[in-house]
Predict the 3D structure of the following.
Amino acid sequence: MSEKVLMKGNEAIAEAALRSGCRHYFGYPITPQTELTAYMAKRLPKMEGGVFLQAESEISAINMVYGVAGTGKRVMTSSSSPGISLKQEGISYIAGSDLPAVIVNVQRGGPGLGGIQPSQSDYFQATKGGGHGDYHLIVLAPSSVQEMADLTSLAFDLADKYRCPAMLLADGTMGQMMEPVVLPEPKTGTVEKPWAVTGTQMKREHNIINSLYLSPEVLEKTNFERYKRYETIQEKEVRYESYLMDDADYCIVAFGIAARVAKNAITALRNQGLKVGLIRPITLWPFPSKAIREAADKVKGFVSVELSMGQMIEDVRLAEECRRPVLLCNRAGGMIPNVDMVISSINALKNQVEGGR
Amino acid sequence: MSLRRAEVSFRSYAFLWDMDMKRVTLFCGHYGSGKTNIAVNYALDLRSRGLEVTLADLDIVNPYFRSKDSTAELEKAKVKVIALPFANSSVDLPALPSEAYSLVQDRSRYAVLDIGGDDRGAYALGRFVPYILEENDYEMIYVVNFYRPLTETVDQALEVMGEIESACGLKFTSVINNSNLGAETTLDTVRKTADKVSELCRRSSLPLFATTAEKSIAEGDMMPLKLQKRPFEA
């Protein structure tokens, strides 16, 4: 095991990407993820086969990612909310061409140009498409600097395995905070990529990377085939943390920085005698619906803690199938819910549940 | 008005300053090496010895975690704070304050300069360098944390040091070993870096100004630091 180092979340993503065999990065700086771009600028030119390019725009960066992904090389881009919006067309093309790539969104407040403080308000964009057409991204939500590193490695592996783009959905606090981290051991992808455009050497048919299908029958077929793969992902790749759920009467659902606030609130609430637990989705897509559906049989209600106007709460409600009340505890625009707010929400839920009886 | 000279010996620090303190102290180093925390602590330390001190937040790199975060504490202690006009406004606009010239022109006060990380941060110093060189009463301290990934080795730390000197046109005069692992730091964490910082000092021909540690764990010669609280910490 390697020694611990002290890193910013953004740096941890960059170093983990390099250790996962990523030698191609294309991006455009934007606060609060710029350290990631700066780190790549410093490290990649010194590495064998390393290419760092600050593109003239986010649109151009994502299309460079599209190009390199077609060659089967591990490739990454990163940005923050407004920049990720600009990349959506390219992300849809990458998904439509069945290519692996890793996209990092260190979210900030929106909509529009918004602000530079942390947010989780790109949840819909990340998990419900963002770009046009029928597709999904695998969406991973780190909650510590250690997970920024670990989930970056996982994102590359899953993207290769399922031939689809994967997104790391972090936020400004995760990107900026410094914590000790054990970096993953260096490795490269082991997945064979016979589809990659690497030159035929006159020994095989041409591989073609494409998302254009003028025959609707063929385009429909590719969509159905892709959704078969999505079903496998939903079966096999759901990840979440279950925290103090065994005896819980109330369940908080929260990811990223909100989950850390929730854990502090749970400690305080348990000291007051209230049994509260947490389900922390680590994959936002595929969403841990089954875990929440099962929790709904045991708990009296849910609170969704979010740095948005309430986005994940829709998936919580879909998952628990209207069995229990689901309240929202939220701040938006770059503000973070605090422990007291979460405690108040649980008390409000308790009153609602007990008052209704 | 002439400068009231400090006649202090920092007995808590490894390097004994029985000589006169320099009027201008600059903290430079790798991004995230801990310059801001040290600058704030150092300014408060000078002030606690009854000296007139100005702390300047000249970080043009990072819009978060700045000296200005400690303005209330600094101003309560009567340390004058000069910050970028847009610091902590969420406007990511690295403009230098016009007031900053008073740092080099008003020689009646001690000046502590918190400079942004790496060579990119050090560029901001350029315009002040002719004044600093002319006065020739400065200490430029290289802050290093050997647990930061781009300054993990002595070679890497020397490389960053050289880049900063080239960018700003000033040479370092001493080194602070600020090696730490954040909340997981123990005395052992700090002690393990003693060999590295000795080698860094030997190869750069610079004296060790101090080795730091958070005040609850600092011992002996170490410079004790009170850490700034971060807004998202519960």
